[in-house]
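To close the chapter, one final illustration. This time we ask the reader to focus less on the individual chains and more on the assembly as a whole: which components sit near each other, and how the overall shape emerges from the parts.
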Amino acid sequence: MISATAFAPATVSNVACGFDVLGFALEAPGDEVTARVAPSGVHGVIITDIVGDGGRLPRDAARNTAGVAVLAFLTTLGERRGVSLSIRKGLPLAGGLGGSAASAAAAVVAVDALLEARASVETLIACALEGERLGAGSAHADNIAPCICGGLVLVRRPSPPDVLRLPVPAGLTAVVVHPDLEIETARARAMLGESVPLSDAIRQWANVGALVHGLHRADFAVIGRALEDTIAEPRRAALIPGLAVIKRAAAEAGALGCSLSGSGPSLFALCASAEVAARVGEAMTSAVGTEIGGDSQTYISPIAHQGARILSACAS
Amino acid sequence: MISATAFAPATVSNVACGFDVLGFALEAPGDEVTARVAPSGVHGVIITDIVGDGGRLPRDAARNTAGVAVLAFLTTLGERRGVSLSIRKGLPLAGGLGGSAASAAAAVVAVDALLEARASVETLIACALEGERLGAGSAHADNIAPCICGGLVLVRRPSPPDVLRLPVPAGLTAVVVHPDLEIETARARAMLGESVPLSDAIRQWANVGALVHGLHRADFAVIGRALEDTIAEPRRAALIPGLAVIKRAAAEAGALGCSLSGSGPSLFALCASAEVAARVGEAMTSAVGTEIGGDSQTYISPIAHQGARILSACAS
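The assembled structure is written out below.
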């Protein structure tokens, strides 16, 4: 191949009770990365252009999540050729929609096709995770894993990746509202501290178990009860003006649950059907408008079956 | 009815990763409680006799787990008649096999039959839990719930009880070894402290999710990887001489996982078949003999489908 373009979708991580271990993929929006073999004499990774970031992302590959991910991938492959990347950001920066994960995932998937490497999913995740580590300050795979695999996944261990794909009941639909705010992941993580009350942690793992059980049983009542975050959301609530009001609006419109997407500011809700999701989307958008103001974007999507994928590849 | 006798089985709580939220029932051993309507003029609960405890359990109903559970049950029912209890302990005291839960569960189930109350499972659990609170120093339902319901259960919330029954893959067999030690539950809880490192907690809820997923998929490899306790076992390991040696013996004999049963000293292992369980039972018993010495009891049992139940009832 002389070039390959990959798309990687937005992802919702944490999913209320699953801090650092649960995530799911949306169908759209997402990031696109085109990879080309660099001219001979160029080693490693160069970033030729980035569009859609307002000029804010580093063009230096060693400081860019996609660049770092591809550097790790080339090292893993023992590849000596250099690669150039062209990045089209469809996801907001610091939006809580897995933007850094999507760029890293699209980049390694594009390079995998470019070099016809056919690397395992575990290798793709492990390398993309190196990019994520740069953005988030720690290597958690709850965006990367669903971004690459699609679906709703549980990351039992990030390294080496032990990723379990959970069943998605028919009808389950996500609403995501991205308000006009930015939250740096590293700052949001710092708000959590190094330890948590045992009683909060016990409730969290009870809810994770219940959520997995509810997904297997397609029991929306259990799923709804389990979508409770006793760890991250209470400690980050102050970052989102009117969070309680927005959550109440989602619940009153019929959502199973509503919480922060990743470290926010985006908020997600899960709903039992597309019809309910449409109502919940309106209610949340309206509440975000009242409580936060500014422009917001609302996405309604089933849990995407497919994750990062090749859009086009050019062999000559 | 003028008398009713109930049996309630031993239970393994925590189940490695599920501190305070996961538990399963064995078929045997267990406790038996016979309840009779007390002579008129006697109110509340009296304990007429206890056998099998070496005289160590309180005969004062207000200080006995079974007595407290039945007092709570009579109050809930608005029952004015008094009840007498006769308790036959089949479970060791402070053994980590849910002995206090079994006495409380057998007592409320016996009294439910005696008074033909037909209380809901939630009511039986809630009242038995009042007895457990006396024994354990806190109200966690991961012994009470499987003791009453049978099976392998997840307690999403103890109060009001939100108990989910998990699927049990064919072949799954428990080994429990009770060494010649006693550990007071309240003391073992105090070793945990009030807070835990966030990183340990994240691993714990990843494992709970993976275990529930593995049970639904009947995937013994996932179940095995998930049977890891990052919270209680590391902090209580010093209570069990040679714990690492005993765990290694179980693993080498083919166990999916091995950890403390409740707060110990009993140890459990889960195995993919009765044949493997027989080998694991021999290996663990031998290792306990070498590392701890004294007399130990070994039980091998499938996860019991049925929990506490009436053995006999006398209407006249």
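The CA atoms of residues 69 and 82 of chain A lie 14 Å apart. The first helix of chain A runs from residue 65 to 77. With these observations in hand, you are ready for the problems at the end of the chapter.
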